[in-house]
Amino acid sequence: MAEVHPSATVYPGTVLGEGVQVLENAVVGKQPSLSPRSTAKREPLPPLEVGPGTIVSTGAIVFAGTRIGARVILGDQSCVRERVEIGDDVVVGRGSLVENDTTIGALTKIQANAYITAYSTLEDNVFIAPCVITTNDNFMGRTERRHELIKGPTIRRGARVGGGATLLPGVEIGEEAFVGAGAVVVRDVPARKLVVGSPARVLRDVAEEELLENQ
Predict the structure, then answer these.
(1) Which of 87, 124, 128, 187 is 20 to 30 A (C-alpha) from 93?
(2) Distance CA 44, CA 30 (A)
(3) Which pLDDT tens digit goes with each residue over 66-108?
(4) Is the pTM higher than 0.90?
(5) Which residues have CB under 8 Å from 206's CB, separation 6+?
(6) Preceding omega of 199 cis (within 30 degrees of 0)
């Protein structure tokens, strides 16, 4: 059975798998409150589902309409919005925010204070270092055209993004690619390439011994 701290809030209908822990002041199954100008979808949301063995840490908030896999750790004061799919064995670090309509694959690690924007895709075994910023709107809230073009980055299997890097809307980070710390990624990054700088440019191939197949 799940273990829910007395100070936590669990909204009706929320499904908690066996061994789930909901710690102090966490909120699970919350319905979103949207601005009239929000671009997020407004259809009714199904209950939140939290897989077995997952830990929702102190002060974390997880919205309805989301599905969390098994053995996931949602760090203190992290937030996962609606219509998010998180695979098994994922870590979302302290203070990180995963926005709506995002998919995160199994074994991915998102470290502290990262911002994963709405409409992003992170495949399996992705590594996101602290304070990474992702974006999805080239028009920054102006013109109606933006609604059909809003898209976060796609980060392919095994890719790594270094601390403080910024990914612009719609870029694709290729499989096993490496984005250096502080890089500003304005275009797609090829698979197995290391990019650095602002704007990010290819420096070299990722070393063979660092690839997942060699771990």
Answers:
(1) 187
(2) 12
(3) 999 999 999 999 999 999 999 999 999 999 999 999 999 999 9
(4) yes
(5) 176, 177, 178, 192, 193, 194
(6) yes
